[in-house]
């Protein structure tokens, strides 16, 4: 262990400390953890590298299982959408047309009807729903799609905002408004559960203001998370579409009383931006920190030896222990690479966010013990080899709980209430507390685009109207003076 | 059971018999099994419906597990490729440029550098490999991508040839030609294993002729399957790219002796076209037939009752038995829908290819038995409830074996040898044997585009030069008279 001790103290020079420049820290963590890199040759796009993609696969598995358990089925719709489709829903085209990538040539010929690359699929899916739905017996229709989408963004940032991103989009049709409302809320809750229970990232469940809702929706819900700099990140959205797209695409059904009616729809999505949220929720100045439930590698063994005879004994023990842990369903790596020091290996896995490093050297071998080093800053501990699977599982479970509790604490500490516009503005303007530091401000504000506009100058916005009012109920709007039922949450956002 | 008996005899009027029109039968099976439908509003595209997508998910799982077991990691690269990238490899651009979809406008502005939607990703991945690879220590680099691609096809057909399709594309870089060759062969073998062991579809492993190889490859391997009409379907390809793309994208590494060298690459892919292959290998005039290992639903219970008191007893037994089967890891559906007759339900699952239907009515309940009806045409059998999981597993295993053996037999019976061009032509011209009926013809043909061209008039081609020469060794080319080492396989193809 003495050999690895110095590694713990090496400052990772490739990662800018959070306190110095949060945005740069974020980018450094991603690059050093080898999650992704910018694809400069394709404007605003990124390459998701194997370690980043493995996290996405874990997220997909957790989400997909829950979608199926709530009765949804996966399907796949075309990437290309006739340009005319977008124009059928007025708000939708207005919202998305500035961001479209347009295919005008195909098979060597100019196209007579141009296609856009899907920025989202309400329109094309609406077209097929109209073909598939005839009667109330066909409802609810509960579909999910895993797909790539393209939105031409001016300012991009790895994972958070990229021209192309990966996501899932749920699209459902129901016989009544009530059922659609229930569905939108149910899927918001699924997202909140994955955020909190799997990503260890606490979220506020809320309703978007009229100014911030999805283009074409009647009502948008979101989960809002707080990053370590106090900024807000919209981590998932779920929309009640009402009958807007049903009317645009003629999605009608015969109801139980025999008359034709338009269906009620929802759509909901989360994307690879969740990985950005994950990074900014847990990571530190040494690099990535991953909650154990999402880590593609949950523990890595670092064998320590100098002489050849040590090597064989140590490696054989390490592989035997790794085998025991794998049998318990844990994701384990043995770093038996030659030509790298234990310190280098330690550093390598640390910046990639592996939750637990397990060192084993000749002295540990003699003592029938291992040294456990948790990634979240918990104490380095010597533990007996006996019962290692249980020790590791307990430690990972505790870490998962601790990460969520740390994040909850941070969110609580950085949420303040304010009772005047001046007070809100002062809080938003204050960046002295920490570099780029932000707060969630709970204030009474009317759900009116004119009110939302007030916060623009600080790149802040009304993040949501929380579903559960944890504050003090009704009050007077700090802008218009009108009575409003509860406080909203205002914050700077990604 | 008497209630369902008539259903067995109902001719599925919506499915054209194979003997009448094979192409139409294929389309009918897909539509009636609800696998997919044409997306007429987007030229040549299709919608993959839930049942079709569930089969794709099963295939993905089987492939992905094997890719990971052979050391590959998943990653994700941009959908859009700068148009100039394709031009860097001369054969590649020549092969793909007629099929490209081009984005010329994005974010409301004409683009100065146009993008093509990836038809395949050798170029964009080559660009990143050049950034990631420096030394022999970075090799081999073993990457796979699950993605959608677009190739603007004039004639499309559900699953077999669509403008957009889903696939995986493996891309690897190696320090030596030998390693790259081994990799290309290894992945061909993975494909053959999935085709035979999972899809129950026998394949011929072979090398493509120069005329048929991938645009930009040095050598292409394929697995070729025989459909029920005797036509060939290329089910997967694996390419040795040599140093072609390495030179085009400057992918160099420092080798062990310290000098710079270009890497040796491979690429390999299978796509949603495998679902088309599956349909045409096993299905019959009643609809889809799925090998149990790929069936999203392996067995469906059809409860039979008339009176209410029968209903409760039957359903409770059916759900209990379904629970037992699920515990064994089987994918089970209970069709307890109201308002549908058992005959209707039987028909419903039959045309969707569920391998086993399990009927249980009041008389079965009294006798502690169930009636099993295998989808592959095996005998209807009454079996005791006791030990049902074992009975069902055995039956599904046997069905899997039987389907492969049937397909092998068909391929053997429909493969003939020919020793003159005239003889080959006569066989290709003969469609009397069965509607659209085709044969694989083994003949001695030189690997030369001028020879390949001879078979075009019958829409036939040299499918491959088999890796394992199962025929009689060297012979004289039936076209040029030159000595060639072995027979090739010629057939009409999809």
- Number of distinct helices of chain A: 15
Outline of chain A: globular
Query: Mean pLDDT across all residues of chain A, rounded?
Result: 94
The radius of gyration over CA of chain A amounts to 25 Å
Q: Helical amount among residues of chain A, as a percent range?
A: 25-40%
Main sheet overview of chain A: 11 strands, mixed
Strand order of the largest sheet of chain A: 3-7-8-14-11-10-9-22-25-21-20
Multimer state: homodimer
As a percent range, the share of strand residues of chain A is 25-35%
Number-wise, the strands of chain A total 25
Largest interface, by Cβ-Cβ below 8 angstroms: which chains and how many residues each?
Answer: A-B, 51 and 51 residues
Low-confidence stretches of chain A: 1-10
Q: Indicate the structural class of chain A.
A: alpha+beta
Task: Produce the secondary structure layout.
Two copies of one chain form a homodimer.
Chain A: H1 5-9, H2 22-32, E1 36-39, E2 45-48, H3 50-69, E3 73-74, E4 80-82, H4 83-86, H5 90-96, E5 101-106, E6 109-117, H6 122-132, E7 141-150, E8 164-174, H7 177-198, E9 203-207, E10 219-226, E11 232-242, H8 244-249, E12 252-254, E13 260-262, E14 264-271, H9 273-282, E15 299-303, H10 308-327, E16 332-334, H11 342-351, E17 356-360, H12 362-367, E18 369-374, E19 381-384, H13 388-413, E20 415-417, H14 421-429, E21 440-443, H15 449-453, E22 460-466, E23 475-476, E24 483-484, E25 488-492
Q: How would you characterize the overall build of this protein?
A:
The structure is a homodimer of 494-residue chains. The first copy, chain A, is an alpha+beta fold and 494 residues long. In chain A, 35% of the residues lie in helices and 27% in strands. In chain A, strands 3-7-8-14-11-10-9-22-25-21-20 form an eleven-stranded mixed beta sheet, sandwiched between helices. A five-stranded mixed beta sheet of chain A has the order 16-15-17-18-19, sandwiched between helices. Chain A has a three-stranded antiparallel beta sheet with strand order 4-6-5. In chain A, helix 3 packs across helix 7. The longest helix of chain A is centred in the last third of the chain and has 26 residues. The interface between A and B is large, with 51 and 51 residues. Strand 5 of chain A pairs antiparallel with strand 5 of chain B, so a sheet runs across the interface.
